[in-house]
Write a structure and sequence with these properties.
The complex is a heterodimer. Helices cover 34% and strands 26% of the residues of chain A. A six-stranded mixed β-sheet of chain A has the order 6-7-8-3-9-10, with helices on both faces. Chain A is globular, with a radius of gyration of 18 Å. Chain A starts with 5 loop residues before the first strand and ends with a helix. Chain B has a domain of 166 residues. The radius of gyration of chain B is 18 Å and the shape is globular. Classes of the chains: A alpha/beta, B mainly alpha.
Chain lengths: 242, 242
C-alpha cells in the first residue's frame, strides 16, 4: 500500500435523518495514491458518508476535510469526481452528449470525453441514447462522467454492481492505474469479495466504523481467511465488547 | 457563461430528442388560435380582441409546464445532486434553462405569429414584433415560475396539477376574460399581485398601439417578476440536502 498524504479526513461526523442517527461520531482517513474500499451491508451508511465527502449531505456535527479544504467547498468541485449509486446521467441524451455536457461544465479538455468513453469500454455505444442501454452500461456512463477532468479524488458509489467479471476486473485495473498516478479513490461496495482488490478498507456497520485497516491486517486480526468471515468476526467482537 | 451555455445546449439537445413535444409546443397554440377564429367567425371583433393577448400568453403556459417537468426530472433522477458537486453556480443552471426555453418560445411565437397574423387575419395596431417579444418574455416568466414550483412536486402527476392550480387562476384574473374594472374589489387586488395581469396589459396596449408610460411600466413589472421568480427558484436549489 502506498502510504500517501491524507486526501480525506473525517472527524466525529454525525448525520441524522428523520430523527434516526445515520452516521454516529464517525472518524476515518483516506490516503492519496491508493484505492480505499468502503464496505458494509446495505443500509450501513455508505452512501451517506460518500455524500458528506462530496458535500451534498446535510450534517449534524463533526468535520469533513477533502484535499485540505472543507468538503463541498468551491475549489474542490473541479478536483473531485463523484459517481452516484443510481446512474445520474440524462437518459434522453447519447453517451457522448452526456459526457460532452459534463466536460463543458468542468472545463475539461476536448480529448477527455473520448478517453473517458474508452476507459469504461463504451466505445461501441458512444452514439447511443442512454435510456436504451442496459443497466450495467448506464452505470459505466455515470462512472465515465466522474473520470472527466482527471480528478485528484474519485468518490465512487458501487461502481461495479451488476457488471460482468471481465469488466469488473478491467475497472479495478483502471482504478489502480489512477491511484498509481497519485489520485485517491474511495470505492464503496456491499460485496466483500471486492475488498481484496483494495489497498485499504473502511468497514462500516449501522453508521459506525467497525475497522479502518487493510485486507491483510483484517485477516491477521480475525484469523479468518475469507473476508466475509472476517467481517462477521469483527461484528461479533464489537457486540461482545458491548 | 461557458457553463450557462453548456446547460442551454444540453436542455435543447434533450428537447430535440423529443420531436413530438416540439410539435405539440408549436402545434397546439396554432390549433387553438384557429379554433378561436372559427368559433367567433360571425363576431370577428372578439377574435381581434383576444387573438393577440392569447398569442402572447401561450408561451407562459407552455414553458411553465415543460420547465416544471424537466426540472422535476432533474431533481428526482439525481442529476441535480450530481450537478451540485460540479463547478456550476445556481445562476448558471437557471440562466441556462431560461436561455434554452426562451429560444424555443421564440420559435413558437414566430410560427404562431405567422399563422395568426397571416392566414387567420389577426390585426394589431402596434408592431407585431413587440407582440412576439412579449411572448418570449412571458415564456421566460413561465420558465422561471416552473423552475420554482418544481421544488414543491414529488411526482410528475403533482407537477402537472400545478398548471390548473397556479396558471389558470392567473390567466382568468389577468383581465382578458373579464375586464379588471368589472371585477369585485378583492379579485382586483389579487389580480394586481399576479404577473400575467401586467403581461396582458402590455399586450393589450401593443394591440391598440398605445406604447406609453403605462406600457413601459407593465414591461418593467414583467421583467421584475422574472428576476423574482428566478431568485425564488435559486432559493429552492440546495447543494446540501437531507
Amino acid at each position: 500500500m502506498a502510504a500517501g498524504l491524507t486526501a480525506i479526513r473525517v472527524d466525529g461526523l454525525r448525520v441524522v435523518r428523520g430523527g434516526n442517527i445515520v452516521l454516529n461520531e464517525l472518524s476515518c482517513d483516506v490516503a492519496e495514491g491508493s484505492v480505499t474500499g468502503l464496505l458494509g451491508p446495505s443500509g450501513s451508511g455508505k452512501t451517506t458518508l460518500l455524500r458528506a465527502i462530496v458535500g451534498v449531505q446535510r450534517v449534524a456535527g463533526g468535520s469533513v476535510e477533502v484535499l485540505g479544504a472543507p468538503a463541498g467547498s468551491e475549489p474542490l468541485r473541479s478536483r473531485v469526481g463523484y459517481m452516484t449509486q443510481a446512474p445520474s446521467v440524462y437518459g434522453d441524451l447519447t453517451v457522448r452528449e452526456n459526457l460532452r455536457f459534463f466536460a463543458r461544465v468542468l472545463g475539461a479538455p476536448g480529448g477527455s470525453v473520448e478517453r473517458a468513453i474508452e476507459e469504461v469500454s463504451l466505445g461501441d455505444h458512444a452514439g447511443r441514447v442512454v435510456s436504451r442501454l442496459s443497466g450495467g452500461q448506464r452505470t459505466r456512463v455515470s462512472l465515465a462522467t466522474a473520470l472527466l477532468g482527471a480528478p485528484d479524488l474519485l468518490v465512487l458509489d458501487e461502481p461495479t454492481v451488476g457488471l460482468d467479471p471481465v469488466l469488473r476486473r478491467d475497472l479495478w485495473e483502471l482504478f489502480h492505474g489512477l491511484a498509481e498516478r497519485g489520485a485517491a479513490l474511495l470505492v464503496s461496495s456491499h460485496v466483500m469479495d471486492e475488498a481484496d482488490r483494495c489497498d485499504a478498507l473502511l468497514l462500516l456497520r449501522e453508521g459506525r466504523l467497525l475497522a479502518q485497516s487493510t485486507p491483510a491486517e483484517v485477516r491477521e486480526r480475525t484469523g479468518c481467511e475469507r473476508l466475509d468471515d472476517a467481517f462477521l468476526r469483527l461484528v461479533e467482537e464489537e457486540e461482545e465488547e458491548e | 457563461m461557458r457553463v450557462t451555455g453548456a446547460v442551454a445546449v444540453r436542455v435543447l439537445a434533450q428537447l430535440r430528442r423529443d420531436p413530438r413535444t416540439i410539435a405539440l409546443i408549436v402545434g397546439v397554440p396554432c390549433l387553438l388560435e384557429t379554433l378561436l377564429k372559427e368559433l367567433f367567425a360571425g363576431r370577428s371583433p372578439v377574435f381581434q380582441h383576444v387573438g393577440a393577448p392569447l398569442l402572447g400568453l401561450f408561451p407562459f403556459v407552455t414553458m411553465f409546464l415543460v420547465t416544471s417537468i424537466t426540472m422535476l426530472r432533474e431533481r428526482t433522477s439525481g442529476t441535480l445532486e450530481r450537478l451540485m458537486t460540479l463547478p456550476l453556480s445556481k445562476l448558471d443552471l437557471l440562466a441556462g434553462y431560461g436561455a434554452a426555453f426562451a429560444l424555443v418560445a421564440a420559435i413558437q411565437a414566430g410560427v404562431v405569429s405567422a399563422l395568426t397574423f397571416g392566414a387567420l387575419g389577426l390585426e394589431v395596431q402596434g408592431p407585431r414584433t413587440v407582440v412576439a417579444a412579449l411572448a418570449v418574455a412571458n415564456a421566460v416568466l413561465g420558465t422561471a415560475l416552473g423552475l420554482f414550483v418544481s421544488a414543491f412536486a414529488q411526482t410528475e402527476f403533482q407537477a402537472v396539477q400545478f398548471m390548473p392550480a397556479m396558471v389558470f387562476p392567473q390567466i382568468l384574473l389577468c383581465g382578458l376574460f373579464v375586464g379588471r374594472g368589472a371585477m369585485a374589489t378583492w379579485l382586483r387586488w389579487i389580480s394586481d399581485a399576479l404577473p400575467p395581469t401586467y403581461a396582458y396589459d402590455a399586450l393589450a396596449h401593443t394591440a391598440a398601439d398605445t406604447l406609453d408610460g403605462r406600457f413601459a411600466a407593465d414591461v418593467a413589472v414583467v421583467c421584475g417578476c422574472i428576476l423574482l421568480a428566478l431568485g425564488l427558484g435559486a432559493a429552492t436549489l440546495r447543494r446540501r440536502t437531507a
